[in-house]
Amino acid sequence: MFERSKRLAAIVLTGAILAACGSSTSTTQPTTGSNEATAVVEPGTDTGSQPSSDGIVIIGMSQSPDTLFGMESQSSATTQVLNSVQPACVTTLSYDYQSVCFAELPTFENGGAVEEMVKVDQSYTGPFVIDNELITDTSVLTGPIELPQVKVTWKLIDGITWEDGTPVTADDFLFAAELYANPGTKVASRFTIEHTAKYEKVDDQTFSWYGVPGYQDSTYFLNYAGGALGPEPKHVLGNVDAATIGGSDYASKPLAYGPYKIDEYVPQERVTLSANPNYWGAKQGLPKISNVIYKFVTSEDQILQQLQSGEIDVVGQIGLSLGQAPSLDELQAGAEFDIQYVPATVWEHIDFAVERGDGVATPFADANVRQAVAYAINRQEIIDQVLFGKTVAMNSFMPDDHWAYPSDSSVINPYVFDPNKAIQLLNEAGWVAGDDGILVKDGQPFTIEFFTTEGNATRQSVAQLVQEYLRDVGIDAELKFVPGTDALFKNGEEGILAGRRYDMALYAWVSGPEPSTPLYLCSQVPTAANGYAGQNNTGYCNPDYDKVALESQSIIERAGRLPLLSQAQQIFNRDLPTLPLYQRINVGAARKTISGFKLDPTSQQDFYNIETWELAQ
Predict the structure, then answer these.
(1) d(CA 464, CA 467)
(2) How far apart are CA 17 and CA 423, in angstroms?
(3) Phi then psi for 251, rounded to 5 degrees?
(4) Cβ atoms within 10 Å of 402's Cβ, excluding its own
(5) Strand 476-482 with 447-453, pairing
(6) What's the whole-model pTM score?
(7) Which stretches does UniProt call biased (Low complexity) (predicted)?
(8) By CB count within 10 A, which of 30, 133, 222, 565 is most buried?
């Protein structure tokens, strides 16, 4: 134990140093660029200690987009950049929803959503839902049945226009839904499309969605455009093969309908934006800052240095981390910077390979082994030593202040650090210590590959601590630090997560106003059969979990959902396909000459109100 304590001290010291100058921990995909980015601005622009006087703000990010075709991206960096160009049509601020592109959020109360009974019999040709199961074959019916069908209608705000002056219409939202449904489009999930009977145009500014009979969805108001994204320009992409869009010029310069348009995209370096004259808020003088540059820098130490030197004006959660708190607190004490620490819905976790996709046997098929690992890891020590004690451990797939977190504390086992309990569970699972202290079962040592993202100092420090905790109970974990976009998060069979080619993996998920129950559905396990669409990267499948999780999604009122969500979390907490580690703290910084920048705990976009920012001259 003394030797482990010395190693622990060394890791923590290294982690603290690296975290002050390392890469961001705030999203699931780090940058893959290897060269320091240099922003290109107009001649005569001052990028010294103050923001330039001609209306340019430089936003630093430690990750770069994998593509700017948002439909095919799983990168938070893409989400951040596109928010300035193609803003979310419904925002999720402060655990609630706000309409952006629509005159109002459709609800059953205001008549924007209605439910009617429809007849389903042998002549019916589409899918339908019974007991939360999607059924495509009417032969299972013994006779005609009546099922409820939800219809939701959205009406666009006046004046929403593409940057080329073409009005954004209902056709663009319906076209986006077609792209989602097209098998040539590489999307993470087609869940909404699979539960859609049809989209229907009412007029140029109005369209409706019809759910399949029997499908009831608590977030029905987000089912526009095939999901909670926005429109795509039919007049530009309507005759283009969907499978080619992601590799086309459009994926580098998508058409804007938001406050800014893209002037230039240099992958791994920068995206240069200018005010969109056809933005619907232009008549109100928006955006207030005429030019924005997203600058991609390879590590947090460079972000911090360039923030201090004036080469960067604003940084959000993809660029700063809690590990930099000492340095940031020093900046906050001065007169130049506003530093923000906001509790986040992003949560770091360890996925277990419950069932690998490459056919390799996994010790984590046994829930007792997964529980043993949970008891072996001292999450509170990780928080105190690496994260300055500024966050809390998580025990479910949502924070404990979420509206859906179980009110009964007995529902959730917190897996308090207990290495003796871990060893007991491992022994009960047939693992016994070998001569070198490493556990052995059926002649095979308990040796695993433990993946996380490279260039991410805080994650690497956490991974090193986990490695030590596991070794103390006899598990030999080989650390693998790999690129995010090109390896860990790569789509398809070759992806480490999507292809389930790992034993344990450390990365992050994002929760929000809605519980993250769909993450662990059987149907969301990525496989060759579903085109690797789905994010249940553990391979976990429990029909009991699916039953209550899907039923919770079909109930509209929150009060009726709570008991089911509690059951779902209890099953998850017992089966433990994923070990939640801790809730992250979003960290942001802006020069005090910029007003309006404010992080929100439940927004996936740090710069959700960028059009209202003002720059002191």
Answers:
(1) 5
(2) 33
(3) -70, -15
(4) 19
(5) parallel
(6) 0.67
(7) 23-34
(8) 30
- Could you tell me which of 121, 80, 462 has the C-alpha nearest to residue 271? 80
Q: Report DSSP letters for 57-108, one per residue.
A: EEEEESS--S-S-GGG---HHHHHHHTTTS--SEE--TTS-EESSBSS---T
**57-93 tens-digit pLDDT:** 999 999 999 999 999 997 889 999 999 999 999 998 8
Rounded CA-CA distance 26/33 in Å is 17
Beta-sheet pairing, 133-135 with 128-130: antiparallel
Instruction: For 526, list phi and psi in degrees, rounded to 5.
Output: -70, 125
Instruction: Tell me the C-alpha distance between 41 and 30, whole Å.
Output: 25
- Kind plus residue range of the DSSP H or E element containing 345: strand 337-352
Per residue in 465-524, pLDDT tens? 999 999 999 999 999 999 988 999 998 999 999 999 999 999 999 877 888 999 999 999
Closest by CA position to 497, among listed 454, 539, 448, 546: 539
**Encoded amino acid at 563, one letter:** P
Q: Give the Cα separation of 396 and 580 in Å (integer).
A: 6
pLDDT category at 555 given cuts 50, 70, 90 is: confident
Q: Is 223 helix (H, G, I), strand (E, B) or coil?
A: coil
CB count in 10 Å sphere of residue 447:
14
> What does the pLDDT look like over 302-350, one tens digit per residue?
999 999 999 999 999 899 988 788 999 999 998 899 999 887 888 999 9
Q: What angle do CA 181, 171, 72 make, to 5 degrees?
A: 40
pLDDT at site 30: 26
Residue 573 three-state SS: helix
- Residues in the chain, total: 617
Cα 597 from Cα 614, distance rounded (Å): 9
**Cβ-contact 215, 152 below 8 angstroms:** no
Query: What DSSP element (H or E) covers 548?
Result: helix 543-554
- Residue 529: how many CB atoms within 10 A of its CB? 8
Residue 17, φ and ψ in degrees, nearest 5: -70, -45
Alpha-carbon distance 427 to 123, whole Å? 57
Range among 30-39, 181-190, 565-574 rated most confident: 565-574
- The C-alpha atoms of residue 367 and residue 369 are separated, in whole angstroms, by 5
Q: How far is residue 226's CA from residue 189's CA, in Å, rounded to a whole number?
A: 10
Question: Peptide bond before 515: cis, by omega within 30 degrees of 0?
Answer: no
Give the per-residue pLDDT at 96.
Answer: 83
